[in-house]
Amino acid sequence: MTEQSFTPDEMMTIAAARALGNDDVCFVGIGAPSAACNVARLTHAPDITLIYESGTIGTAPDVLPLSIGDGILCETAVTTVAVPEMFRYWLQGGRITIGFLGAAQLDRFGNINTTVIGDYAKPKTRLPGGGGAPEIASSCGQIFITMKQSKRGMVEKIDFVTSFGHGDGGKAREKLGLKTKGPTLLITDLAVWKTDPESGEFVVASLHPGVTREQVAETCGWPARFAEVLEETPAPTALELKTLRDLKARTAAAHGKTGGDA
After folding, report:
1. What is the extent of the structural domain holding 34?
2. From the candidates 10, 53, 135, 240, which is the catalytic residue?
3. Is 53 noted as a catalytic residue in this protein?
4. CATH at residue 152
5. Taking CA 99 as the corner, what is the angle to CA 70 and CA 65, rounded to the nearest 5 degrees?
6. 260 lies in a domain?
7. HSE of 31, CA atoms in CB hemisphere, 13 A
8. What pTM value is reported for the model?
9. What pLDDT digit, counting tens, does each position of 22-58 carry?
10. pLDDT band at 225 (very low <50, low <70, confident <90, very high)
């Protein structure tokens, strides 16, 4: 294990990357999810299949894309299919094991808001919207979420349900006929959270190095629950840090700015 210093963002991205396996077929969101998925591909999961919403399958970009329509995704993909085929055959056909999403607002049950802040009719802020996230949340085998902790983002009640997680908890997904697991993992810049299989609520499973329970509780808008056996997230290795930093450096050079930040 390395003694190198690292930032909370780097710890978040690397912890998220570790959650992915070599055999996964992963539907990738832009931003932090994309960074995590590509770090996994470049380290412990070289055979992971990365799929982006624009229809690129098995893509292996050398730099992080600016959007789902970035040409670098198509250039390195095994194949590119039409968006209807992507959703009907691959996603709704149950062929994708992991959906990796970000969120503007998130509640304890993994419900995601990327639509509006405030009242829908008269919002304080209009967000980018759902895109394919609602379908990803319902049709992928399970959902991983990554976001920075703040009371502004992790709230007791989201303003709009863009992507359904576990509803109000318990068997909410089952009652709607959803057969996928929904959100099972939340990786923030402070901790790794796992879903309680009974309540559907996120529970802190491990704290990142140097982080306290108090820090996690103070930056969460709901009363944070902690696992009975609370672990410490292993610090990034030298290889993981170098891979992430090199990826970001290449991305910055390619886009002329610090694009693809986690």
Report:
1. 8-255
2. 53
3. yes
4. 3.40.1080.10
5. 15
6. no
7. 12
8. 0.93
9. 999 999 988 899 999 999 999 999 999 999 999 999 9
10. very high
